[in-house]
Amino acid sequence: MKKIFFLFLVISVACIKFVPKRGEIPPGYDKIIEKIPPTNISSFSKISFDFTQEIPEANIREELNAKQIFEFTPALEGRAYWERKDLLTFYPFFPLKPGQQFKCKVNLSILSYYFKNFRPLEVYFKVYDNEIFNFSNVFENDTTSEDKTKQIFKFSFFMTDDKFKLEEVKKGIEITLNGEKADYKLEKTGPRYDIKFSFNQPKNGGEILVKFLKDNLKLNREISLRYPLAPFKKFKAEDLQVKWEKEGPKVYIIFSHPLKEDEKIEDFIRVEPNLELKFSLQGNLLKISGEFEHNNFYKIKILPNLKNFLNEKLEVEQNFTFQLKDIPPEIQLPQRKIYLSSKSNRNLRFKTVNLNSLNINVYYIPIQNIVFFLQEFEEKYERDAYFDYNRTGKPIYSEKISIKAEKNRWIEQDLNLNIPENLPDKGVFYVKFNFNKEDAIISCEGEANEDDYYDYYNNPCAYSYYYEKGKNSAVVVISDIAILALKEKNKWNLWAYNVSSGKPEEGVEIEGYEYQNLLVEKGITNNNGYASFSKENISFFVGKKGKNLSFIRTSASSPPLEPYDLKGEYSSSKKGIRAFVYTERGVYRPSDDIHLVSILREDISKPVDVPLKCILENPLKQKVSEEVNGKPINGVYYFKLKTEIYSPTGIWHANLYLGEELLASHPIRVEAIVPPKIKPEIKIEKEKVLPDQFPLEIGISSKYLFGAPSSGLKFNLKVNLEAADYSFSKFKEFKFSSPYKKFSREEKIEEGNLDNNGKAT
Prior knowledge:
It contains nine helices and 54 strands. Strands 1-3-7-6-4 form a five-stranded antiparallel β-sheet, with no helix packed on it. A five-stranded mixed β-sheet has the order 26-32-31-28-29. By secondary structure, it is mainly β. The longest helix is centred in the N-terminal third of the chain and has 17 residues, at 2-18. The protein has seven domains: 2-127, Immunoglobulin-like (Sandwich), CATH 2.60.40.3710; 132-229, Immunoglobulin-like (Sandwich), CATH 2.60.40.10; 237-323, Immunoglobulin-like (Sandwich), CATH 2.60.40; 330-478; 481-556, Sandwich (Immunoglobulin-like); 569-670, Sandwich (Immunoglobulin-like); 678-760, no CATH class.
């Protein structure tokens, strides 16, 4: 019996000696391989092998023959590629089956000449029995309750193992609110699980803890997710701002909480000196209108006992003092580089404020001098650019124009570029505007202190203000063609578009120049408007077709985006992935939904199809929500992010992760005030009506751009009438109309106020 036991022990030890443990590199391979897949992996894992040194034959991101290199038991389909020159990766096309055990054989001799004497490497791993993924959560106001502090917490998730019963899943989840267990409702919709429970917002804040129990749900570890709850702010007026709007100056008071809707605001707001005031309330934003006079000082008093929507009272009187100053004189252009299409009639639009006259100078820069002009122009201050446009161009137009100015109101108008007949359109026009103190209409009492730093640069009553700010300029190109350049590895990709039709432009001759104005490469766009250039030392591209001209600097190789907030491009140095992240607008109010989109690309155009995690952080660096999108559409990921009415204001961040790597941290501005812009709409039953079809019903609706209806706003509906001549095909020489019939061109139909839904008929 002892001999048999001893023999069995020897055999067992011998087996252990030759079969490596899972996760360990087999003997003999540790000289070339540093890391293999772990013992247990996720259903969404890549299967990677990290080599001790770079492989000469490896080309990063090049697609390999996965079936020749990898043999899986059971079989797997996927793609193989080098993530780095020392990192080989197999990416399965589909999530791995939970609990499945795999054997992986890697044919090393195919990868490199240096591995020709190595036998295939065999490794073993197992997929986790169950995983929780695609977390998402939102906080909503409970509209069914009269209690304004009532909130609803909604939480959704997915599990890789779908064999659990609903009651088993509920036993494996614990939710607590500030340490106390919460009674929640669990439902399943398809593969998604939804949790919902309502609660009263804790006055001092706290957190909701969602815990997934390891043993109950067969997880590899316990998962705890924490969602902070902001405390109630003390009710107060937080800020006062003066905004210039189309109809005049408005005063905005921002409160910490929305005010009570039926509160009599006029009983709690006073102004000194006394004025007749009008009030408009939007949540926590109070707009005050009145005949405020320029350069006067005003004191706004907010009296105690003013109530917010929770019936909390303002404890003490608050005072704000402000002075309504003139807007400093200024001229604004759409951007520094402007393309005017043939449909623009050479009209350049600009706007001014508090200016009754303006000096304009136009310089023509011929096509052969464009590169010389661009060498320095964008890298200098405007006042130094004089030497560039005088060296490379010649003056063709100079005039002082008058402006029908209204004090403190922006005036828009067009400048028609008077180009002499003997000049071709194909070229660049440098347009320079300037003004001085005599051109301004502002109130200056007393002398400005030129020695004071603020007065020197910012006081329009000081002459030095005009030396620094009394000018603006733009490079203008009259063309129907625009080009876009983008660098990819060792080549340039260029696209030409017709700005009038929006379609790609074929046959555009594009020339690439070095910085010293040496032509290094030429190309012509194909039927997709595309051309590529292999030279890397190109500083400028110039495109020509007929009378049309376009140019671009490679140091700024993107279309002019100065007017837009498009600072959302990020890249991963490890994975070679580029991301463009944007939201549908630039600023949000607390309680708004934030719609965030991220477009992921490998290199220049290849869509990425990997899970992307988004973690939303507030300005206090607290995690507000976490969500994973594993099903992008052509590399486009969408996240709906929530804020609450009590959310802190400031710069939030949407942090996007590829695995554990932070790909992007996109800033999002959440502020307590949004300028009250509206979107009006008019709906008419028919486009054409006959005299016997009156009366005609016209529907009016309006809403603020942040979503709320424009309830109570005044409307004034007018109609413009035009006479129409009647004629018949058989009597073309006759017009059946009377010159003696006259009517008012503009007629007033109705005026009134929109209802609570922002509508009227």
